[in-house]
Amino acid sequence: MSNYEDWLQDQPAPTKKQPALKVASIHGVLPYAGDRNPLTRSDTVKRVSVAIATPMTSGVRQVYHFDGESEYAVALDALRSPELYGLEVQLPPLSFYSRQKRKVRTHRFDLRLTFRDGYRRAVFVRNATSLAKPKTQDEIGDIFAAVTEDLADDCMVVCRGEHG
């Protein structure tokens, strides 16, 4: 039986953080338009990139990067609706006052859905364990209270457990 030191020698050396992957331009496809590129490397989260056409892009495919499979699943679910006009991901940061931290913080909504009638919905995707915590619920309340009509007409929370 080996001792702990022997086992440590078999472990790979820690790697330093790598920059986010960049997708080169694709002929006939609109580039990624999100505020932040989520394509960083992760051992736990599976990032997703896809080209999707919506009425907002005049039927031309556009590159979308999703922070994980759950956000992608939410987008796919929304795309099933004939009322969906457009999809945006990784929105610019929203400043909000955190009552818990007692300071101004920022949050980026995962998606914004725009419907044919112009109605816009900001979507916050989070896992069930986090959503069950009172501090997360308070933070969501603070974030939603800071949303103005130039960002969205309403906001919704999607539990990650519902979409993978």
The gist of it:
This protein is an alpha+beta fold and 164 residues long. 21% of the residues lie in helices and 28% in strands. The protein has 4 helices and 8 strands.
Radius of gyration from the CA trace?
19 Å
Shape: globular
Domain tally: 1
Number of helices: 4
Outline the low-pLDDT stretches.
Answer: none
**What's the CATH architecture name?**
3-Layer(aba) Sandwich
For the biggest β-sheet, the strand order reads: 3-6-7-8
Largest sheet: 4 strands, mixed
Classify the fold: give the CATH topology: Trna Endonuclease, Chain: A, domain 1
Proportion of residues in helical segments: 10-25%
Series of H and E elements: HEEHEEEEEHHE
Name the CATH class: Alpha Beta
Overall pLDDT metric: 89
Question: How large is the share of residues in beta strands?
Answer: 25-35%
Q: What's the count of strands?
A: 8
Secondary-structure-based class equals alpha+beta
Distance between the ends: 40 Å
Describe this structure in words.
The model has no long low-confidence stretch (mean pLDDT 89). By secondary structure, this protein is of the alpha+beta class. Strand 1 and strand 2 (61-66) form a beta hairpin. It has one domain: Trna Endonuclease, Chain: A, domain 1. 21% of the residues lie in helices and 28% in strands. The chain has helices at residues 4-9, 69-79, 128-131, 134-146, and strands spanning 48-53, 61-66, 84-89, 94-98, 103-107, 111-115, 120-126, 154-159. It has a four-stranded mixed beta sheet with strand order 3-6-7-8. It has a two-stranded antiparallel ribbon with strand order 1-2. A two-stranded antiparallel ribbon has the order 4-5.
